């Protein structure tokens, strides 16, 4: 039986760390939806459409991947599409507290949905979207950290912001 899984996040922007998780998990679940959060409570560098567009560009050769946007509770989305798994990545101990609190809350809100935590590959453990934006702002080299399309999008975003 095919199990539907969701990989939710801000993806502001997508990095090789996220892509690695998607590449490793999609074959296990067969169908994986990358769910782009757009919460009115959060400030993003890229709009939800831009983030989804970048994800689509970076994952264009990967089969079995859907990309969707959602403003709401991930568990509610999971129920709506009848997905039974939420995937989250864990980089370091610093991620643990937040991820465990969220997994416990999701379990309370949707007992039928499981959270699966995946450990980051060591070489991607230092990559975060926040850090990527910091490096891009100061025009640092993002080779091996984000795909070229993302590096380009960051460059033009900050060029526009500073002009
Ligand atoms: P959020 O705002 O939900 O934390 P992110 O886009 O930062 O969204 O992250 C989405 C998911 O991807 C989270 O589970 C996060 O821990 C994971 N993640 C982020 N960066 C990496 C990375 N470098 N390697 C593996 N997982 C990552």
Helices and strands, in order, run as EHEHEHEHEHH
Derived from helix and strand composition plus strand pairing, the structural class reads: alpha/beta
Percent range for β-strand residues:
15-25%
Rg estimate, integer Å:
16 Å
Count of DSSP H/I helices: 6
The percentage helix is 40-55%
Q: Ligands in the structure? A: adenosine-5'-diphosphate
- Average pLDDT rating: 94
Runs in which pLDDT lies below 50 for 5 or more consecutive residues are: none
Largest sheet: 5 strands, parallel
Q: How far is the first residue's CA from the last residue's CA? A: 53 Å
| Overall 3D shape | globular
Oligomer: single chain
> Got a strand count?
5
Adjacency order of strands in the biggest sheet: 3-2-1-4-5
Helix/strand layout:
Layout lengths: L2 E7 L6 H14 E8 L10 H11 L6 E6 L3 H8 L3 E6 L2 H17 L4 E6 L9 H9 L10 H15 L1
Parallel strand pairs: 1-2, 1-4, 2-3, 4-5
Describe what you observe in this structure.
The model has no long low-confidence stretch (mean pLDDT 94). The protein is 45% helix and 20% strand. It is built from 6 helices and 5 strands, in the order βαβαβαβαβαα. The relative contact order is 0.20. The chain has helices at residues 16-29, 48-58, 74-81, 93-109, 129-137, 148-162; strands spanning 3-9, 30-37, 65-70, 85-90, 114-119. The N and C termini lie far apart (53 Å). A 5-stranded parallel β-sheet has the order 3-2-1-4-5, sandwiched between helices. With 163 residues, it is α/β, with parallel strands linked by helices. Residues 9-11, 15, 17-18, 21, 88-89, 91, 95, 120, 124, 127-129 line the site of adenosine-5'-diphosphate (ADP).
């Amino acid at each position: 039986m095919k199990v539907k899984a969701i990989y939710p996040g801000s993806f502001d922007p997508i990095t090789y760390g996220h892509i690695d998780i998607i590449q490793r998990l999609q074959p296990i679940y067969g169908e994986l939806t990358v769910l782009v959060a757009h919460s009115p409570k959060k400030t993003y560098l890229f709009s939800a459409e831009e983030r989804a567009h970048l994800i689509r560009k970076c994952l264009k050769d990967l089969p079995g991947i859907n990309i969707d946007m959602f403003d709401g509770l991930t568990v509610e989305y999971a129920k709506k599409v009848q997905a039974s798994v939420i995937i989250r990545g864990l980089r370091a101990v610093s991620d643990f507290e937040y991820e465990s609190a969220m997994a416990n809350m999701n379990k309370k809100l949707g007992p039928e949905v499981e959270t699966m935590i995946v450990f980051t590959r060591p070489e991607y453990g230092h990559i975060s979207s926040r850090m990527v934006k910091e490096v891009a702002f100061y025009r640092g080299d993002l080779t091996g950290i984000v795909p070229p399309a993302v590096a380009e999008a960051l460059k033009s975003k900050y060029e526009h912001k500073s002009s």
